[in-house]
Automatic annotation (TrEMBL):
One of its GO terms (molecular function) is RNA lariat debranching enzyme activity. InterPro entries: Calcineurin-like_PHP, Metallo-depent_PP-like. Signal peptide: none annotated. This is Lariat debranching enzyme. Pfam families: Metallophos. One of its GO terms (cellular component) is nucleus. It comes from Wickerhamiella sorbophila. It comes from the Eukaryota. Residues 1-226 form the Calcineurin-like phosphoesterase domain. One of its GO terms (biological process) is mRNA splicing, via spliceosome.
Amino acid sequence: MKIAVAGCCHGQLDVMYDIIEQEGQNPDLVLVCGDFEALRDEEDLKSMAAPAKYRVMGDFHKYFRGEKKAPFLTLFIGGNHESSRYLLEKPDGGWVAPNMYFIGYAGAVRFNGVKIGGLSGIYNNKSYTSPRTEKSPFDSSSVHSVNYVRQRDVQKLWLMGRNSIDIMLSHDWPAGIEQHGNLKRLLAKKPYLRNDITNNNFGSPPAMQLLAHLQPKIWCSAHIHIGFTAQYKHGDPNDLVPGARETLFYATDKPYRPNTVVYLDVEATASDGLQPDEKWQKILSLDTLSPDSLEDM
């Protein structure tokens, strides 16, 4: 089974789908790692956290109104530039247009048996432990904070446990993952990252906690607008036993030109398409999260 993974499309869905079709991979599924911008109308546009010059309607409204249909089933998470008014209506995910599905602020689904998880938004230390209380219309603060990762969402994903996720999506990178790839090349392309990396301020600490705990086979992120790969080996870094479990990390660039979309060959274990993940649904039904289950958080 072929899965395409794209980075921040910023509403340019036509361009993204054109690139995928031109590359001839014919994926069974497209995953977008945030900054999707599912803008239906001008009111949605007002709810997007972005400088005025970057606030453009993009293409989604044509898919929402039925003028177009996504040529591939598309799943996405939220980033820090989103149609926050619309996504706030679907905190646990759902269909936003035909063939387009939002995973939720945190979520897990299955596609042909492959377990896919997602964590929307970006990490902000000041908002991390705060409840999600934002409402539309947003003010100058909440228009940003609505896109920040919350501890409760991370805790729910934590309860999924090891081996529960095959492919995990986040918008910003797990903190420290850059140390497991070609850091020299990354800094040559994005020199402004050097200070944050040196001071351990780059990336999302809770995302790295989840990576180490869930140990998915693949983790994909976006946000920085660059392609990057890394191999994160779990367990003792000095353990050279062949076959030690590892997570392959892929950062994806904006899908505006050829060779920016990542294509994954994944073994399907079923043929039932997109389905809810039973364990995730049970977690959503919990009135409280067990402290015993969260003792390591």
